[in-house]
User: What shape does this take?
Amino acid sequence: MYIRNMEHNFSAYNVEIKNLKYITDDGRKFPRTAIVTFFDTRGEEIGTELFGNLDTGDIYSMIRDGSDLNLDNCYIGDLSLSLYRQHNGLDKKEYVTLNGFSARNTFFEAHIATDLSYCNFSEGGVSFEGASFGNGKVLFNNSKFGAGDVIFSGVLFQEGHIEFTGSEFGNGDFVFKNAIVRDGLKDFQDMKFSDGEITFANTEFNTGDLLFINTDFGNGKFTFKITRITSGKVDFHYSTFGEGDVVFERAEFGDSRVDFRAVDFGTGRVNFNRSLFGTGVVTFEGASFSGSKFYFKRVLMKIGSKDFSLMEMPGAELSFEKTDFGLGGLSFNSSRCNILSLQSCHLDHYVDLRIAGASELDLSDSIVRDIIDLEPYNVDVDIDTINLSGMRLLGKLFMDWSKNSCKTAILNQKHTSLRQKAEQFRILKENFNVTGKYDDEDLAYVMFKRLESRSDLDEDLQTKTGAGRISATVSYAARWLVFDAAGQYATNPVRVLFSMVVSYIFFSLVYLSQMVFTKADIIASVDDNLSVVARAFYHSAITFLTIGYGDHYPFGSIRWISGVEGFVGLFLMSYFTVAFVRKILR
Assistant: This one.
């Protein structure tokens, strides 16, 4: 019909009733014809459509008789079950049964409202496919739909005010796709669905509040794909979903305040991929999910805070991969999930990642320009694995080496190489330096150097053979002994001091063994009564500390060992000075 081609364009219309018979394509006859002329925003005529016309009195008679209501291709004016009850002496909330209802390609208009509230639609399905609602509100409050599909595909709601509050649906699909709802209130609160598919795909809701508060969506699949909202409030809080998938893929929420607080997303797969959010607050606070996949990939957001705090999704993978969170803070405070992925995200503003529980937090390849807060403060933070691979840290990470278990959180990673783990510890080292946590910086630096060295060894063992592999292993062992074991890469002066004591005792015992079992000796150049043990330890001390009084001198093989000890002592004393001064100056 012609109206379907122009419904996106007309902004006004005129209805003229003629006493001419109208015969539909399926042979139904009407005593009058309604001529509806459509006009664009400039008042110019853009088309005309003919409909069969029924008086509401005739419709009310059919309702009383229990006849089937086939209103396809009709023009219906001021249809109101409230007036029907009033005229028939019924209670205001008494249900009225409509049998065999169909209104395909029907044109409704009303001075106040097309009112089908407290209506009991019989089983077998209800169709408004291709219908248009001109002037007046459209009300289905507390109506009951029996088993069968309920179809609003391609419907135009010209005034934009529709209400389905408290309506209930039997088994069957609810199809609201390709519909157009002009500016106004869209109220779907407290609805109850059964097990059929629910789809609002490709529907244009324009401006005005869109309310699904406390709605039970049953166990069927819910689809909101490519649906468009210009502005207002989109409110799903306290709604519940069942076993079916929940799809908001490529939905456009415009400059709306989007509220999914305390929503139970059920057990199916949840998909917000590529959806668009404009200027406005977005909140999922307290939402729950018992399924495994909650995808929020490549989403684009603009201005406004984004609140994902207190969510309970313990078994779910929450993936926000390549999402642009725009301007405004982002919070996952006290939420629980299995995996939270912010891979390749641009995090330009404060992000609260003090998660109550997660097996893995993936921040790989992200770009951070502000603060990421992971440090426990009045909340417990429990994250088993944290992945910082490839992060571009232009801001700061608020973390604590011990409280956040940084060492195990990185070493627990299953799919990163030693080189990648080392790089993550380097990021933490530089971050702790900027945030003034110098002890944590030292711990991160030690792990960075250890893993870097081990990674070098593994690469050499993979690429070299024979003598090359032996040389690489010896080099690794020497570096480990000198740089790590002796002083933890100059980060631990106490460790260096302990290494000095161990080295001193070692050389002393070597001298003693040489004096007992060989001809080597430590000869006194002055008279003294020192025992063999005392001479060994005394000579070791003056040699290690490079004092060299000259009152004792080595003989035999001890000469060469003394030279080695002198070098070791000089090295370790310098090593201690560097480590000690490094601690003091910071």
User: Anything to note?
Assistant: Residues 1-8 have pLDDT under 50 and may be disordered. Residues 68 and 245 are 36 Å apart (CA to CA).
